[in-house]
Amino acid sequence: MNRVGKKIFLVVATAILFSGAAGAQVSTDLGTWSSVHITKSFDRAFVMARFEHRSFDRIRATECYFAMAGAGYRFNGWLAGDLSYEFWKIPSAGNITTHKAVASLTGTLKRDALAVSLREKYELAFNAAGGVPGGTLRSRLRTQYGLSDIPLTPYLMFELFNGFNGEGWIRSLHYAGAEIKISRHSTIDVFYMYHLFDKADNVFACNILGIGYMLTL
User: What is the pTM of this model?
Assistant: First the structure.
């Protein structure tokens, strides 16, 4: 990695770590996020599907689970967009059902083995019980560095959620993880994530241990 690349990596890493430390005094829970993500490419176009399960309460209960299906397009070497639908079940909130319409744009800059990406995602959630649909803007910054000697890509990532119905800040996710390539089409994603979220006008936190399987066809 050249000098400029090192500086970018260090600045982004420091920002993410300090933002996580800002909530270090909040009482915390422990949970897990596990997922399977499948992507099929057709030149620049692609389709995708995902299933994810999340636990909380010291990993003793299911917080929620969801299934996603969508499609996207790579406009050029650095910009891609996608549209998707998500079906959510949330046992931790009375087993409610939520439907989400999601649109996102992701820009990625690369220099040698270093890559920095910014994703802006807008999701509109419809509660099956009725009520006004809720909009959320999610801004995610990710930096990663591919290791040449081993099939390992460590990364740091930060995501901020803001509401459009007067809620303001909703939650933030602070990741440190690595993607491990196990075959030409298969990758394992393992991470630790510090999750800060607003609940009844108080800030709560959860330590998340995550694992995901990604299949690229």
Answer: 0.86
